[in-house]
Amino acid sequence: MSTFLGMPAPPPRSPYGTGNLRGDRAFPRAAHDELGNEQLRRNLGRATGTIRAKRLNVTGELPDWEALRDAG
Description:
Layout: H1 27-34, H2 38-59, H3 65-71
């Protein structure tokens, strides 16, 4: 015996008409429009730099990390 409880409701929309995961523009168009957003570019650059530095720090602990990566 099974019970059908229906479909979940969609998440609420932002009062501004778009939400985090929804928008009225396709991703390529939205990405192009945001290229001029200085704050977003600065934040992304900092996050990317942090991720790369942490990765370099961790891979530096293993002398053969590339061989380990290739081995799967």
